[in-house]
Amino acid sequence: MKLKHSHAVWLMVLAPLMWSTAGVVTRQLEHARAFEITFWRSFFTVVSLLVILPLWQGRGVWARMWTERGVLLASGLCWGVMFTAFMVALTLTSVANVLITMAAGPLLTALISRFFIGHQLPRRTWVAILVAGAGIAYMFGTQLGEGGIVGTLVAFCVPVAAAINWTLVQRSQRSGHVVDLVPAVLVGAVLSTLLTLPLAWPLSASAHDIALLAGLGLGQLAVPCVLAVVCARVLSAPEVSLLALLEVLFGILLAWLGAGEVPSQQVLLGGALVMGALVANEWLGWRERAGHYQIRQTETELGDNS
């Protein structure tokens, strides 16, 4: 699938919009709770990807998954933690808390990759990590007296697992193994389904709940994950990271409009620190790379003229 840059940008706006529907949909459920919500969403993600993968990549995808089973299992474990922790966190705290906590993922990835695979971090990234950390610490501190810290701590498992996942992928690519992330999503969904079924039993979801969770499995997870992988082949990593942050804004807005969940002042302030640090870091990095590219272009032109 070949995309123009502008088309990839719009699709990458659509992906976080679809991701952001989880919070408002969860608030519309009648009987399903915590682990059962996670079970049904993961189950329908498995069903969706079992159809999408062979249609998109051909039946050979199953043989490739077996060949790469070691890396896919490790990446799938991380996806499984993300799927499970995300939905459980939504039942324990506000949508805004969950999404803003998850937004720290890119900075945690930078930090973990620095210590485990030796990536050098520029000063701007260290500053962004400190500012974002202060924002999250502030949100944690305000919740200690409110008893809502458990949900935020569960949500924090999502960016930690994501950071480990991307670091594993980078390390495997360095050694010559290119990981296809969509089959890894399927592995994670299978693991999440198997883990949460005994915890969710006996199942109590109504037909209404199951229909909504089926929609989440297909439209909130399977399809946007495929879109993001396709867009990442056209867009640069900073572009993908910045556009993915729209999930935070969309998610808070949808929960506000669709479920009457107004974010607290403390969450907005802590979130502003996290989001500001992320955007500033990515924007400065983009300017730095653009400046280096311009210098190389000028040197090339001068060399040709001489």
UniProtKB/TrEMBL annotation:
Print the keywords alphabetically: Membrane, Transmembrane, Transmembrane helix
Respond yes or no to whether keyword Transmembrane helix is given for this record.
yes
Which residue ranges run through the membrane? 39-58, 70-92, 98-117, 124-141, 147-169, 181-204, 210-235, 242-259, 265-286
Q: Which InterPro entries match?
A: EamA_dom, EmrE-like
Q: Sorted alphabetically, which Pfam families does this protein's record hold?
A: EamA
Q: Work out whether the entry's keyword set contains Transmembrane helix.
A: yes
Question: Which top-level group of life is the source organism from?
Answer: Bacteria
* Domain spans labelled EamA: 8-139
List, alphabetically, the PANTHER family matched: ACYL-MALONYL CONDENSING ENZYME-RELATED (PTHR22911), BLR4310 PROTEIN (PTHR22911:SF135)
| Name of the protein in its database record | DMT family transporter
List the lineage, top down: Bacteria, Pseudomonadati, Pseudomonadota, Betaproteobacteria, Burkholderiales
